[in-house]
Amino acid sequence: MTVFTLINISLLAILVATALTVSRLRALYEAAMLSALFSLVTACLFVLLDAVDVAFTEAAVGVGISTVLLLGGLALTRSREAVTPRRRRLPGAAVAILAGGTLVYASQDLPAFGSADSPVQRHPLTDTYLHQSQEDIGIPNTVTSVLASYRGLDTLGELLVVFTAGVAVLALLGPLAHPVDARRRDDLDLVDYRVLRVISAMLMPFILLFALYVLFHGDFGPGGGFQAGVIFAAGFVLYGLVFGLDKAQQVVPRVVLWALIPFGLLLYLGVGVVNMLLGGSFLDYDTLSSDPAAGQHLGILLVESAIGITVAAVMTTVFFSFANRRATR
Amino acid sequence: MTAHLPALQVLVPLGCAPLCLLLRRFRTVTWLVFLLAALSSLACAVLLATRVDDGPLHYEMGGWPAPYGIEFVVAGFNTPVLLVVSVVAVVAAVYARRSVGDEVDDRRAPLVYTCLCLTLTGLLGLTVTGDVFNAFVFLEISSLSTYALIAMGRRRRALLASFRYLVIGTVGATFVLIGIGFAYAVTGTLNMADLADRLTDLDGNRALYAAVVFVFVGLAVKMAVFPLHAWLPAAYGEAPSAVSTFLAAASTKVAIYVFCRFAFTVFGAGLVFTTMPVGEVGLLLAALAMLVGSAAACFQRDLKYLLAWSSVAQIGYIVAGISLATAAGVSAGYLHVINHAVIKGALFGAAGLLVLRLGSARLDDLAGLGRRMPWTFAAIVVTGLGLVGVPPTAGFASKWALVSALLDAGAWPVLVAVLASSLLALVYVGRIVEAAWFRDPPADLPADQPRAPVSMVAAVWALVLLSVYFGIDASLPGGLADAAAAALLGTGGA
């Protein structure tokens, strides 16, 4: 127990130190790298809390793709933050201190860390999710059951958030907004580095295979559509960085990518609509088969795939939209 | 299919969003898809409104009973909001075809319709959901798509306006999430009715107090309550006109509804208004919002900014009514939600007509145009009188309800603020009239300006006539508002 506490305390200390450093840094590249560190430490804390699915997502999204997107954004703009006058920093500081103070005040009456008789543990919800779900859905990883079935609408909503982000980037930065701004093809010349080229070509099948594994293994272990989609996207981004954006867009043409963004969402929605036509509620996967558990399995597999498709397509599109633009410093 | 109505209310616009993106090559088709989303939403809202008299309707998502799954709840307290959002969406859709075509370039117009579908989905979902975390998800959808829509304004300043709103709006949404997290930690549930049940035996829990504070401060950003209104003027001023029309009429109203839902049916009026001083703080901020908003509106040079500042003041009226936490007060707040949505939608629509013809909505450019564009300016005057609260306009009906509710509660200082704000409203509406009718038109005004498109004028006038009707016969909005107040203050969890 003491070792556990010590690890927690030291991770939390690193987290605080990283956050303070990020807020003081003016160089944005360094800040982006340190926020990746922040996410990594957060992911470690999630592992300690036994929330491996969340940790996996944090590692894939927070450390991986969002750092890549931050750097992609920074390449288009200045990479040094302008200094805010001291006078104008005061309101922000006041809000931060007030919010922090309220958090500390509230923490006094929160259930003890790890307590077995906290309201969350005592609520029948927890028992249903942990035990009843084995009968109703029959998936060992209850996180997937909660995410894709019990609270499937929230997950559809989160997918819609990702979709919205993709649409927003297309509208503001994408070739739809400025088709003439395309970057010249000789801007990226990482392909001249033989080691880089050979290693990334070798890694590519493994990355994509791992993404598929994460997607289809989400029923049994940590993983699922969001993580898989992000890993897919990371694979394409790596390919695009090394072999050039033109090559990457030959592999997955832009038109296909843009069709995949709405396709995943429509697939998710379609599953729900089929449930309604079969006489159930929206997203009631029981209706998909005569055996409710089999129906749940099928439904969850379909929606996880739908999530993977849209997330991968959005993340890749966002990165290519950034990379395709000429820097306007 | 009627059992599915609460779900269809949200799902049809949701499905229309990816369709718009898929069909982006056909601009007219994407517009039709958005129009379809708005019309279906209106149809669902009307059907639902006729059915809630027999008690609230529940819809269990995924077939999982609440609190294990997510439920949608339609009751007296949210049908008025559904109707307002849907009506405004239909009007905005009719209006958008020419307005978006003029202000946004052709390649991006389909994405505007996609984002409009997304915003509509988010606002409707936020209104019907009976689950606090699900509410946060829909809040995110509506917020993100709103940022994108504002950024598509015709001037580069739109990007800055959108970025500012994004930063402050994200902080607000995070506060809401922290508050929801605390509420979950002390109860173990996310279902609104279940939360309300379990929160009753948590007297004096500090985490619960913090939850209330975080949720309400976060929502106050979305409601644009003074002093968290700073994002609103630039956001509404710079967004494309069709978007300003839709957002000004619908988006803050939904945030206000969510505030009511949390205050009365989740945390409970006892905790929020008796134990905690939310009512007193609300009245104070409302009074300040009325004075500051109306005063700032008097000094604006751009019509859209003027209208946006006036919105800050009008939100003050609504917040004042709700903060009283009496049946009369909440009913007055709801009535003004309905009336102000209709009035402000019409006014922003009229401002968009001016942008279309003049390329700007600066007051100086309106000089002497009253006779050139009689229909547009007649619309502005009729609805402008509603802003002031002159009888027999819709604005008078809701202001009268508010004043009598304030009198009953003995809130004299707020009453003074309402009257002062109304006088200031007379000043800023007067400035528009003065510019349009009592100034000489510039000598070099080109004679052959394009005529305003019929569809846009018709959309604006539909709202104008609706506001006139609500002024003469307030039984429809009044009945809805009374039912809403009864549903909120009566049963609790519903």
From TrEMBL, chain A:
Q: Where are the transmembrane segments?
A: 6-25, 32-49, 55-77, 89-107, 159-177, 198-218, 224-243, 255-278, 298-323
Domain MrpA C-terminal/MbhE, residue spans: 88-174
- Start and end residues of each Na+/H+ antiporter MnhB subunit-related protein domain: 195-316
Question: What are the entry keywords?
Answer: Cell membrane, Membrane, Transmembrane, Transmembrane helix
Where found in the cell? Answer: Cell membrane
Membrane topology of this protein? Multi-pass membrane protein
Do you know which InterPro entries this protein is assigned to? CPA3_antiporter_subunitB, MnhB, MrpA_C/MbhD, MrpA_C/MbhE, Nuo/plastoQ_OxRdtase_6_NuoJ
Task: Tell me the superkingdom of the source.
Answer: Bacteria
Which Pfam families does the record cross-reference, listed alphabetically? MbhD, MbhE, MnhB
Transmembrane as a keyword?
A: yes
Q: Where is the MrpA C-terminal/MbhD domain?
A: 14-77
Q: Which family does it belong to?
A: Belongs to the CPA3 antiporters (TC 2.A.63) subunit B family.
Q: What is this protein called?
A: DUF4040 domain-containing protein
What organism does the record attribute this protein to? Actinophytocola gossypii
TrEMBL record, chain B:
Write out the entry's keywords from A to Z.
Cell membrane, Membrane, Transmembrane, Transmembrane helix
- Residues in domain NADH:quinone oxidoreductase/Mrp antiporter transmembrane? 130-423
Main location (coarse class): membrane
Membrane topology annotation? Multi-pass membrane protein
For this protein, the record's InterPro entries field holds: CPA3_Na-H_Antiporter_D, NADH_UbQ_OxRdtase, ND/Mrp_TM
Subcellular location per UniProt equals: Cell membrane; Membrane
In Pfam terms, one family for this protein is: Proton_antipo_M
Q: Does the keyword Protein transport apply?
A: no
- Give yes or no: UniProt keyword Transmembrane: yes
Per the UniProt record, which residue ranges are transmembrane? Answer: 6-23, 30-52, 72-96, 108-126, 132-153, 165-187, 207-233, 254-275, 281-299, 306-328, 334-356, 377-398, 410-433, 454-472
The text of the family note is: Belongs to the CPA3 antiporters (TC 2.A.63) subunit D family.
The protein's name is: Monovalent cation/H+ antiporter subunit D family protein
- Say which species the protein is native to: Actinophytocola gossypii
